[in-house]
Design a protein that fits this description.
Blueprint (H helix, E strand, L loop, with lengths): L3 E9 L3 E5 L7 E5 L2 H21 L12 E7 L3
Parallel strand pairs: 1-4
Antiparallel strand pairs: 1-2, 2-3
């Protein structure tokens, strides 16, 4: 089975990390702490976002109905 990839546009901040995803309009994450904690927080935040979309019967991309891999594309600045 080929797992779909979900691209996160990520940046290192003075205190941690932030990211956004073109597939999730309005969804943005900012996290103060370690990279491992950031990755956990991103997954939890996506789950929370999707839960709300499903409850409200709003559109969300089908990629999130199956298994997917989060890929971080870090800004070089």
């Amino acid at each position: 089975m080929i797992m779909e990839k979900v691209l996160m546009k990520a940046s290192r901040t003075d205190n941690g990390y932030s990211c956004a995803c073109d597939l999730l309009p309005g969804w943005v994450v900012a996290y103060t702490g370690s990279m491992d904690g950031f990755k956990d927080y991103v997954k939890e935040s996506i789950d929370f976002y999707l839960e709300g979309r499903k409850e409200d019967r709003d559109y969300y991309p089908a990629v999130f109905d199956g298994e997917y891999e989060i890929v971080y594309d870090f800004d070089t600045t």
